[in-house]
Amino acid sequence: MDIHVITGHLGSGKTEVAVNFAIQMTEHLQESDDSSTVAVVDIDVVNPYFAAREARVVLESHGIKVAAPSINTTTAALPVLSGEIYQFLHREDHVVIIDVGGDPAGARILNSLYNYLRGKNLHVYCVVNTKRPFTSVHQGILSYIQSISAASRLPMTGLIHNTHLLNETSVQDICQGQELLEQVSRETGLPIVFTAAMKDVTLDVQCIGNDVLLMERYIKPPYVL
Description:
Radius of gyration: 16 Å
Oligomer: single chain
Strand order of the largest sheet: 3-2-4-1-5-6-7-8
């Protein structure tokens, strides 16, 4: 069993990354004749309007299972996680992708799963958008990584670069963000697992030396039909 935990600050685009990563993972397993099932565990109780559960139809159309808290409990002081979430964490034939809330408060929900995650083949990624105020500079990124690791009790194992300004994202934005995140990677020893960007801008990017995740947009604001 592989478990991939995807966390990141508000506005990092981590949920879009998680959904696209799950779809790409499913396609990769199918191509390699691996019978493992991909499951997305949505424990984002910080901003439920931009959570992976909003892409449930798309995910399930790819054969991906989805588990999330009840919509009636996501705003509670102590959100209740469904039994299905715990079941997925015990399935050896599953590749599990966990979408975590975007700040230390969200990471504390992840902390509640600590005993279920301990000893598993665990990967914990921090999604970084260098166009957000608190992660636009080197020290801000380091502080955020440290706060998430402390709140969740799980050490970070990798970085995901996802610099964007929604529809205004330019190739220059991505290249500048890449340079900053490579600096953080060198200092922390955390590898950049991949750089994520929408297909229309990524195709022109020449500054990326690591893997690239070409994304479709699946997560939309509630006011967009």
